[in-house]
Amino acid sequence: MDMTLLVQFWVLGVLLVLVPGPDWAYAIGAGLRAQSVTPSVLGMLSGYVVVATAVAVGVGALVTEYPVALTTLSVVGAGYLLYLGTTALTAQTGEGMAAGDAPVADGGSAQFVKGMGVSTLNPKGLLLLMALLPQFVSPQGWSSTGQMLVLGGLHVLNCATVYFAVALLSRKLLGSRPGAGTVMSKIAGVMMLVVGLGILGEKAAELVG
C-alpha cells in the first residue's frame, strides 16, 4: 500500500473530522452526561465501521445507484437527526440530556445504539467516504477492497481521537457549569435540526427539479 497516499488521506481525514457537525453535537451531549462517554462515542465509531466496510465491499455504490434507496436513507437519517435535535431542545436541564441524549438512567447500550444511529444513518458520511476512499487507492499492491478497508479503519481512528476529545473536553469545561451546559445542549440540538432540515430540503429540491 502506498504510504504517501495513506499519509495524505490521514491529513485530509483529520481536517474533515475537525469540522463540527452532527457527530460533534452528539459527542458534546455525551460529555455533558453524568455517565461515561465511552458507549456513545463507541456507537458512532461502530457506525463508521459499518459505513466504511459497506463502501469497501461495494454496497455503498449499490445504494447510490438506486435513487429510491439513497432517498430513503437520507429521509430516515434526517428524521433521526430531527428527533435528536428536538429531544435536546425540550430537555429540562443540561445535566441529563444534550444533543438528543436520553436521561442518565438510560444504560450504556441505549447510548451506544443512538450513537451508532447518528453515524450510520447520516447519508453525508456514506457519500463522503464513497468520494474519498477510491481516490487514495493505489493500482499496485493490495486489492482495492483491502486498501479501502485500511483507509476506512484510519478514518475511524481519526474519529475516535477527535470525538473522545470533544466529549471529554465538553465534560471538563461545561460539566460543572449547568447554565453553560444547558446553552451548549440547545446549540447542539439546533445543529441537529439544521442538518436534518438541510437534508430534507435537498431531497425536496431534487424531487421538484
Automatic annotation (TrEMBL):
GO terms for cellular component: plasma membrane. It is found in: Cell membrane. The chain crosses the membrane at residues 43-63, 148-169, 181-200. Keywords: Cell membrane, Membrane, Transmembrane, Transmembrane helix. It is a multi-pass membrane protein. The keyword Membrane applies. Pfam families: LysE. One of its GO terms (molecular function) is amino acid transmembrane transporter activity. The keyword Transmembrane helix applies. Its main location: membrane. This is LysE family translocator.
